[in-house]
């Protein structure tokens, strides 16, 4: 039963990261933890990407860092908001929150707790 709930929870988190068929956004990169506790993703369009975190086991705040090739890493803190069915979420529009100018290969990483624990792997997207 526990395994079934874990699979169901992971499926719900994955589905929540996928944009609707009618929407213009698409998933540029994503990751879900093996336990299914959280999913992270970068959603497009590439001209105005957003980072999204959905979880049923983490609360409070997290640190988000953006790196563009050789340029200095930019970081900031965001709060998770309680949502439906016990799932916490956060969506960060990267153009509004970071200096995201021009073309390049971008890596975005999320950290939890005292910013020591990285959530999954870095997510990647390109802008041309």
Walk me through this protein's architecture.
This protein has 128 residues and is an alpha+beta fold. The chain has a single domain, classed as Immunoglobulin-like, CATH 2.60.40. The strands form two sheets. It has a five-stranded antiparallel β-sheet. Strands 4, 5, 8, 9 and 10 form a five-stranded antiparallel β-sheet that branches. It is built from two helices and ten strands.
Topology, please?
Blueprint: H1 2-17, E1 27-32, E2 38-43, E3 50-55, E4 61-68, E5 74-79, E6 81-82, E7 88-93, H2 94-97, E8 104-112, E9 117-118, E10 123-127
Antiparallel strand pairs: 1-2, 2-3, 3-7, 4-5, 4-8, 6-7, 8-9, 8-10
Report the CATH topology name: Immunoglobulin-like
The 3D shape can be described as globular
Order of helices and strands: HEEEEEEEHEEE
**Fraction of residues in β-strands:** 35-45%
Question: Which segments are poorly predicted (pLDDT under 50) over 5 or more consecutive residues?
Answer: 1-23
Looking at this protein, list some descriptive labels.
single chain; 5-stranded antiparallel β-sheet; 2 helices; globular; disordered N terminus
């Amino acid at each position: 039963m526990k395994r079934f709930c874990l699979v169901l929870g992971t499926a719900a988190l994955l589905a929540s990261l996928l944009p609707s068929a009618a929407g213009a956004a698409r998933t540029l990169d994503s990751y879900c933890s093996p336990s299914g506790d959280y999913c992270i993703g970068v959603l497009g369009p590439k001209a105005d990407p957003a980072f999204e975190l959905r979880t049923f086991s983490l609360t409070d705040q997290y640190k988000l860092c953006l790196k563009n090739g050789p340029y200095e890493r930019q970081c900031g803190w965001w709060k998770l908001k309680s949502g439906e069915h016990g799932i916490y979420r956060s969506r960060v529009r990267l153009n509004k929150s970071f200096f995201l100018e021009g073309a390049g290969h971008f890596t975005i990483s999320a950290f939890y707790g005292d910013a020591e624990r990285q959530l999954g792997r870095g997510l990647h997207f390109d802008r041309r």
